[in-house]
Amino acid sequence: MMSTTVQSSSPPVAVPRRLSQLRAALWPILQSLLIPALSVITAVLLGSILILFDGRDPITAFEGLLEGAFVEPRGLLATFRNMTPLVLSGLAVAFAFKSGLFNIGVQGQLIMGSVVAAWVGFAVEGLPPILHVTLAILASMAIGGLWAAIAGALKAFADAHEVITTIMLNYIAAQFAGWLISTGSDGSRPGPLASPESVTDAIARTPRILPSAQLPTIYTVPPNFTLHAGIFLAIIASVVVMFLLQRTTFGFQLRMTGYSPTAAQYAGVNVKRVTILTMLIAGMLAGLAGGIQTLGVNYDYEGNQSLGLGFEGITVAFLAGNNPIAVNFSAFLFGAMDAGTTRMALAANVAKELIQVIQALILMFVAADQIIRRIYRIRAAGPGAQLRIGGRS
Amino acid sequence: MGETELGLALIATINFTIRYSIPITLGALSGILCERSGIVNIGIEGMMLMSAFTGFMTNVALSKPGVDPELQATGVRLGLAILAALLTGGALGLLHALLSIQYKVDQIISGTVINILAVGLTGYFYQLKAPTKGKLPAMINNPWTQAGSAKLQLADNFVLYLPYDLGRILFDKDLITYLTLALVFVLGWALFHTTWGLRTRSVGENPRAADTLGINVYRLQYTNLFLGGMLAGLGGAFLTLAAVGIFEQNMTAGRGFIALAVMIFGNWRPSRALAGALLFGFATALQGQLQQFGIDFPHQLVGMLPYILTIVVLAGFVGRARPPAHEGKVYEAE
Prior knowledge:
The complex is a heterodimer of chains A (393) and B (334).
Chain A: H1 2-9, H2 14-53, H3 58-71, H4 75-98, H5 106-123, H6 129-158, H7 162-180, H8 196-201, E1 217-221, E2 225-228, H9 230-247, H10 249-259, H11 261-266, H12 271-298, H13 309-319, H14 324-348, H15 354-367, H16 369-376
Antiparallel strand pairs in A: 1-2
Helix pairs in contact in A: 2-15, 3-4, 3-14, 4-9, 4-12, 4-13, 4-14, 5-6, 5-7, 5-12, 5-13, 6-7, 6-12, 9-10, 9-14, 10-12, 13-14, 13-15, 15-16
Chain B: H1 6-36, H2 44-63, H3 69-72, H4 74-102, H5 107-125, E1 150-155, E2 158-162, H6 164-170, H7 175-193, H8 195-205, H9 207-212, H10 217-243, H11 255-265, H12 270-289, H13 299-314
Antiparallel strand pairs in B: 1-2
Helix pairs in contact in B: 1-7, 1-10, 1-11, 1-12, 2-4, 2-5, 2-10, 2-11, 4-5, 4-10, 7-8, 11-12, 11-13, 12-13
């Protein structure tokens, strides 16, 4: 007792100052976590009101959700499995956002990656497994990147707004992939990538990929629920993206363009080149998300397996404040929500779509942080703290 | 394939084109109203979906046994249902305005919130097989009959009856269809020939100047977003109260986004947007009719065309789409 008081009194001013310095250093970090956390909590509370309104029990519902997402033997596995494409689609949104581009076309880029991975997976024969998987993954990244680069080039050279062009490219991708695998059951020719079996059973899909193209399994819950190695690819991708943004010249130019394209232009940045490259890389991430779904989960392309992944990526990215590393955590949260819905629906007789309501509310609160600040009386952060698409229009 | 009656297929294609283009036209009008006053609205899809749902559920609630028969009369019941849809759309328009003007949320994000929210909420409250006492009837019936018409034999399998077939295109349509066509011209006129229209356009082009001249920029934006939301709501009402008659999950199926494409296609002008919507409708109708006409061409590739055309127009390869100068940006009053 005595000794501590003596020690603390010997440098009487330094301790409080150090403490306040620590607090000053921690406060922004804490605050950057506070808003997303409160957004999630508020959204869940509102979701509970909705459940009560429907005459059900929210406690049972969320117990079911947690059980489905973490407790059940396959729960955590499903969470990780769902998280994998969400990390990548979240990165595809966040990366583009850093340069002031809104990539709403993740869905289309993902579809293209998915279908091309399936094509390489079943059509290329005689390769050793490692080479085959790598080839399929690279192909899915290449096509996703090129698909997004169309929007980038249109933005750079024709000033066409990327939000609209990427939405249009989503529909073009969906129709195109739909044609590739169409069964031709109504008297027309089947699509070039349609499985021979699909002509008889009328389920549009590609042939199953060869075992050599499947992503290796890292964990299996008996009898046959597996987790594939894609989760590592996703996490590595987030680190690579972080490095690219923070430690390379290109990343610096990209962020500069995001703050002000005009200023970047004056500083000698080739804004057109940055725009196209940004979309190319964002598309590669989205294409990888699609490729991994094909090579690790579905083993073929069926058309509607990836519904919504692209749009969930937007919420995942914004919840993470567009920070590539934080995307892993928000994707984990969303993966868990998606994994737990079925159990939640069973446990409390609540419609699965509740999760979508909660996710939309999370996006709203994260984006309109003033609402959260007002409810919980949190001091406003400095300028630039708010989510906004850079100086571009 | 040769046995297909081309006359029947032709009329079916035209009617499908019209029916498909109505909600898209309304969505495009919604987009025009919002963007002309400087607010980008990519939440049209969600507004349509949610309104389609509330309109339908109002119809369901009023169709239940035990409800006052006066309320159950076709006109009152469907009138109230349409009103519910309009108010839903309007409320979502106000939410979009609140988020993007008051809370300064990026307009694209705000629209995305509305879209995801609509899918979630309608899915959550969705009920399987909810019965109703029917949808909107035809407002004017075809006055001509096949028997009383002249038979035009254009080819072996191509017969038209005039004026009966013409009547099948012009009549047998519901209230919302005619209302939409009227709205296209009313809005087109109002945008370019009224004080409101001039103010709307000036706010979309240069809100600072408009503010200097004494126009209340925010009030105008709130008003236009409310009206724009109601237009999208009418589009939703058309789906569940006139075209299909029931609600299906996610039934808008991208129509709100196509409406955006049509808006750009029409260069932010109502009448050209109608033309664009008809083009999209025709391309979609053609997808289903290719087989009928004995053409073996993948319908998905036809379905891609309108989207490709939109990109081509937006990129300025053909014509030039010029959006309002200040759309998408927050206006900060001094």
